[in-house]
Specification:
Layout: E1 6-10, H1 14-26, E2 30-34, H2 37-47, E3 51-55, H3 63-71, E4 78-82, H4 87-95, E5 100-103, H5 108-125, E6 130-133, E7 136-139, E8 144-147, E9 150-151, H6 156-166, E10 173-174, H7 175-183, H8 191-205, E11 215-218, E12 222-225
Parallel strand pairs: 1-2, 1-3, 3-4, 4-5
Antiparallel strand pairs: 6-7, 7-8, 8-9, 10-12, 11-12
C-alpha cells in the first residue's frame, strides 16, 4: 500500500461525491469516484483501490449487489454508507462482506478514521493467511487451495464455505453461522443444505471423504477445520 492510499468512493449523488472527494483528499487520501454500480465495478477492476466507500441506496445495481460481485474476486476493504439507521441493514451489509459502515449524515473526520482503521486491519491480515491442514494448503489471501502440491478447483460456494472454516482453524463454527455467512440469514436453519455442501467440499480435499480428517463434524453443533490431521471419531 502506498503512502497515500487510493480510495474508490461510490454514490449516485453528485454533491455527496464532490464533498467526500474534497474532504478525503484533504485528509491525505487519493480519491477516485463512481456515480453508479457499473462504473464502480469497472474502476475497482482497473484501478485496484486500497479501500472502497460504497453507498447502499443507488438506482440500478445496489451497493449490496456491487459488494457481492466484488467479494467474488477481491478482499478489498469496503465501508458501506447508508441513510438507513436500521440494525437490520447494518447486519445484512456485514454478513455480505462489509468491513464497516457509516450512517448518513456522517462526520468526514469519522469516515477518514474508519477508513484508516480498515486499512490497518487489511495490512495486518496480509501477514500470514496460509492455513495448512494435513496435505492441504489454503491460501486465504490468494484464494487458492492445494492438495499434495496440486491446485484444487472449487466452486464459489465451496470456496466461501472453506474460507469461513479456514479463517478460524481448530475452532468450532456453529452450523447456523456458516449458513448465514455463506448463503444468507434466510438459510440459517437449513442444516441438510449445509451437509450436502460439506460433503461436496470433503470429496475434493479429503483423502477419505467418508472418514474426514480435515473438516470435522460436531453433531448437533457445527463444523471445524482441523489442522492436526486427526481422524474424526
Amino acid at each position: 500500500m502506498s503512502a497515500e492510499p487510493l480510495l474508490l468512493v461510490v454514490d449516485d449523488e453528485a454533491g455527496v461525491l464532490r464533498l467526500m472527494k474534497l474532504e478525503l483528499t484533504a485528509q491525505g487520501f487519493r480519491v477516485i469516484t463512481a456515480a453508479d454500480g457499473e462504473e464502480a465495478l469497472r474502476l475497482a477492476e482497473e484501478q485496484r483501490p486500497d479501500a472502497i466507500v460504497l453507498d447502499i441506496m443507488m438506482p440500478g445495481i445496489s451497493g449490496l449487489e456491487v459488494m457481492r460481485r466484488l467479494r467474488e474476486r477481491s478482499n478489498v476493504p469496503i465501508i458501506l454508507v447508508t441513510a438507513k439507521d436500521k440494525d437490520s441493514d447494518k447486519v445484512r451489509g456485514l454478513e455480505l462482506g462489509a468491513d464497516d459502515y457509516v450512517v448518513k449524515p456522517f462526520n468526514p473526520d469519522e469516515l477518514g478514521a474508519r477508513i484508516r482503521a480498515v486499512l490497518r486491519r487489511a495490512v495486518a491480515a496480509e501477514v500470514d493467511r496460509v492455513v495448512r491442514a494435513g496435505n492441504v494448503e489454503i491460501d486465504l489471501n490468494r484464494r487458492l487451495v492445494h492438495k499434495n502440491g496440486e491446485q484444487v478447483s472449487l466452486t464459489r460456494t465451496e470456496w466461501l464455505l472453506l474460507q469461513h472454516l479456514a479463517a478460524n482453524p481448530d475452532k468450532v463454527i456453529l452450523a447456523p453461522e456458516l449458513l448465514s455467512k455463506v448463503w444468507g440469514p434466510e438459510y440459517r436453519d437449513d442444516l441438510q443444505y449445509l451437509r450436502v455442501w460439506v460433503s461436496r467440499l470433503r470429496a475434493k480435499i479429503e483423502d477419505a471423504p467418508a472418514e474426514p480428517r480435515i473438516i470435522k463434524t460436531l453433531p448437533g453443533i457445527g463444523y471445524m477445520l482441523s489442522t492436526d490431521g486427526g481422524a474424526e471419531s
